[in-house]
Design brief:
This protein has about 525 residues and is an alpha/beta fold. The protein has helices at about 1-10, 135-145, 155-160, 185-190, 195-205, 220-230, 255-260, 280-295, 325-330, 390, 400-405, 410-415, 425-430, 440-520, and strands spanning about 35, 40-45, 55, 65, 70-75, 80-85, 90-95, 105-115, 170-175, 210-215, 240-245, 275-280, 300-305, 315-320, 340-345, 350, 365-370. Among the domains are: about 1-35 and about 125-330, Rossmann fold, CATH 3.40.50; about 380-480, Fumarate Reductase Iron-sulfur Protein, Chain B, domain 2, CATH 1.10.1060. The longest helix is centred in the C-terminal third of the chain and has 83 residues, at about 440-520. This is Ion-translocating oxidoreductase complex subunit C.
Length: about 525
């Protein structure tokens, strides 16, 4: 313990621009241990639970699948496979509502479970990973479908392959869990700290970094203590520090946490690797340990089920694909009818339109809010240019300028104000006295820009295909004309060759005719 304490005694902390203090409401759910949930009779497993290309189904409808069996393979570098969360029968591949701000439908594998929860044959543990080729370890993490479990769901194997052109010196483990109500990482650190450190050790080995910094907000004293105890039992304390940070939303944002712990600023439109840093969530570290040391793919996660509308809020270990309604039922159902059912937290989460929407790798919370917790904001009023949004913005943007241009659908101008640096934390909307749903405008603008860029790419691809087709047709016509010319030349040559003996015979006959005439006379 003395060693662990000494590691953080003299560390300087920085601050980021803006941020807000809001009630954390974590005591609703963080008092009870993580509990397993009864196996659902039906699992709805989205084929894309990550940033990047969707996975491609590799099993047939009607086929029996086993827990941990890959049912969809990645289709690109930035992609991730999907595994069966339990054993049963794949009964359909069909569109189903998935957790998304737009409430969109997406292809899902529908599995009717058989109750056996029987595992597929798993790859052997890589307990000797320090002696193995690092690429084999990264490939294992990729095979296991491990993605960032703190929100973005970026494939972890890609983040652990920053490239030889980037010198990574620091690995940051994000245990801040700054959003109100959510406590799944808190409970994970309290109960599985040793397993988290095994994952941290693996990532440290792959990246070859000089230091590991584990940032945890100071409103989680039990988690900080458990992590310190676990660290003290390892040989990692020579390069690892557990750093309690002030509770300020959104200190758990990737760029904000990097700023707090190192003082470094990730450049606009940049990534942490550009400043020598890789950032991973504590849940991701545990999933990496599962994949490498146990050969287990990512088929379940810890989810907070909370809000004052829930009878017994707590954290559950949940198979991927479990309907949100099953989690609510396991926690005793509703104490009262919620005004809003949210996937995620109250700040960055989004409304669930269907309680049967499935849990994915990115789902950290199912939140049922009462009218008192989430009162109707009333109609949005005109912006009064008070500047509170700019003061609160942790990305140091100008939210009112982005709002005006997004509302006017001036997508070029809104990008001039670094729209894509917005982390959609909701601080601006929280402090807006006019109750303008600012984040909705930013999400709309981003979606429109992405859509237009996609259409532009499609148009460019169509033009390229048309140009390629025209070039192919021209080439074929040229080849046809060349072939016709050759045929004509061959026929002409043949005709000429046939004409030569006839001409010679005629000439010979002509030459012989006068002699014959003379002899006759």
């Amino acid at each position: 313990m003395a060693v662990a304490h000494s590691l953080i005694a003299n560390r300087r902390l920085w601050t980021f621009h803006g941020g807000i203090h809001i009630p954390d409401e974590k005591s609703l759910s963080n008092g009870a241990p993580i509990a397993p949930i009864a196996l659902p009779s039906r699992l709805v497993v989205p084929l894309q639970q990550h940033i990047g290309a969707p996975a491609r189904v590799i099993v047939a409808v009607g086929e029996r699948v086993l827990k941990g069996q890959m049912i969809a393979e990645p289709t690109g570098l930035v992609s991730a496979p999907v595994h069966a969360p339990s054993s049963g029968t794949l009964v359909a591949i069909e569109s189903h509502p998935i957790p998304h701000p737009s409430g969109l439908m997406a292809p899902c594998a529908i599995i009717e479970t058989d109750g056996e929860d029987a595992w597929a044959e798993l790859p052997p543990p890589m307990t000797d990973y320090p002696q193995l080729d690092p690429e084999l370890i990264r490939e294992r993490i990729r095979w296991a479908g491990v993605v960032g479990m703190g929100g973005a769901s970026f494939p972890t194997s890609v983040k652990l392959s920053p490239g030889t052109d980037r010198h990574i010196h620091t690995l940051i483990i994000n245990g801040a869990e700054c959003e109100p109500y959510i406590s799944c990482d808190d409970r994970l650190m309290r109960e599985r700290s040793g397993h988290i450190f095994e994952g941290v050790r693996i990532m440290h080995h792959l990246l070859g970094v000089k230091q590991v910094l584990i940032g945890i907000e100071d409103n989680k004293p039990e988690a900080i203590e458990e992590m310190r105890l676990a660290l003290a039992e390892t040989d990692m304390h020579t390069y690892t520090e557990i750093v309690p940070i002030p509770t300020l939303y959104p200190s758990g944002g990737e760029k904000q946490l990097i700023r707090i712990l190192t003082g470094k600023e990730v450049p606009t439109k940049g990534i942490p690797a550009q400043v020598g840093i890789v950032c991973q969530n504590v849940g991701t570290a545990a999933a990496v340990a599962d994949a490498v040391l146990e050969g287990r793919p990512l088929v379940s996660r810890v989810v907070t089920v909370t809000g004052r509308a829930i009878a017994n809020p707590r954290n559950l270990e949940v198979p991927i694909g479990t309907p949100a309604s099953d989690l609510i039922a396991h926690c005793g159902g509703y104490r009262e009818t919620p005004r809003k059912l949210v996937c995620g937290g109250p700040m960055m989460g989004f409304a669930l339109r269907d309680a049967d929407t499935p849990i994915t790798k990115a789902t950290n919370c199912v939140l049922a809010l009462t009218p008192e917790e989430s009162p109707a904001p009333g109609p949005a009023l005109a912006c009064i240019r008070c500047g509170r949004c700019a003061q609160a913005c942790p990305a140091n943007l100008l939210p009112q300028q982005m709002y005006w241009h997004a509302r006017a659908k001036d997508l070029d101008r809104v990008q001039d104000y670094n729209l894509f640096d917005c982390i959609e934390c909701g601080c601006c909307a929280q402090v807006c006295p006019s109750h303008i749903p600012l984040v909705q405008y930013y999400r709309y603008a981003k979606t429109e820009i992405w859509s237009r860029e996609q259409e532009k790419r499609k148009s460019e691809q169509a033009r390229a295909r048309h140009a390629a087709k025209q070039a192919r047709l021209e080439r074929q016509e040229q080849e046809r004309q060349a072939k016709l010319r050759k045929q004509k030349e061959a026929l002409a040559a043949k005709a000429k060759a046939q004409a030569k003996p006839e001409t010679a015979a005629k000439q010979q006959a002509s030459a012989a005719s006068p002699t014959e005439t003379a002899n006759d006379s």
